[in-house]
């Protein structure tokens, strides 16, 4: 037998082992799915509520026709998303995320750029027909879903 033919099975074994190890590393690098019960973050997010003149719900006593409506919580793959809108004379004047995924630093990083961008989109579009933020697809979908719920509750 030729000496090079002896080495080929060993090369295949080494190559297969390297591919298997690489695949295992990539698989373990994926973010694990967390149960909705573990994704409890309303307390820190609720402190960032907007609107000093709005109270907690229907504010019928304001002279400017300002009211605040909170949408339903949308459960996403990475955690709950809930949006609160402030309406003045039928126009959306403010949007804030009451809840958003914040289980780890990566969630916080994504939300640090996605939530302001989604807010700008809503204030410009004045509807739930907004673009998805790249890199924050699940958060964008949940934001849109909760926003539409708030708009429906407001009668818009």
Plain-language structure description:
This protein has two domains: 1-30; 42-154, Sufe protein. Chain: A. A hairpin with a 2-residue loop joins strand 3 and strand 4 (91-99). 26% of the residues are buried. It has 156 residues and is of the alpha+beta class. The chain has four helices and four strands, in the order ααββββαα. The chain is rod-shaped and about 80 Å long. Residues 34-63 have low confidence and may be disordered. The protein is 45% helix and 17% strand. The longest helix has 26 residues, at 3-28. Strands 1, 2, 3 and 4 form a four-stranded antiparallel β-sheet that branches. The chain has helices spanning 3-28, 42-46, 105-125, 137-154; strands spanning 66-70, 74-76, 79-88, 91-99.
Q: How many angstroms separate the termini?
A: 82 Å
Q: Any idea what the radius of gyration is?
A: 24 Å
What is the number of domains? 2
Class per helix and strand makeup: alpha+beta
Helicity, in percent? 40-55%
Just give the CATH class of the largest domain: Alpha Beta
Question: N-to-C SSE series?
Answer: HHEEEEHH
Number of helices: 4
Strand content: 15-25%
| Tertiary shape | rod-shaped
Tell me about the largest β-sheet. Answer: 4 strands, antiparallel
The poorly predicted ranges are 34-63
Mean pLDDT: 76
CATH architecture of the largest domain: Alpha-Beta Complex
CATH topology of the largest domain: Sufe protein. Chain: A
Number of strands: 4
């Amino acid at each position: 037998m030729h000496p090079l033919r002896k080495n080929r099975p060993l090369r295949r074994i080494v190559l297969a082992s390297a591919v298997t190890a690489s695949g295992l590393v990539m698989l373990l690098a994926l973010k694990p799915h967390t149960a909705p019960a573990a994704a409890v973050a309303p307390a820190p997010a609720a402190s960032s509520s907007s609107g000093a003149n709005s109270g907690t719900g229907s504010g019928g006593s304001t002279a400017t026709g300002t009211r605040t409506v909170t949408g339903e919580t949308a459960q996403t793959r990475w955690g709950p998303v809930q949006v609160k809108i402030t309406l003045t004379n039928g126009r959306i004047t403010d949007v804030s995320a009451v809840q958003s995924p914040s289980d780890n630093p990566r969630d916080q990083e994504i939300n640090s750029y996605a939530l302001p961008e989604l807010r700008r989109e809503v204030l410009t579009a004045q509807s739930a027909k907004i673009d998805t933020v790249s890199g924050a697809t699940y958060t964008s979908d949940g934001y849109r879903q909760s926003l539409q719920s708030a708009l429906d509750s407001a009668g818009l």
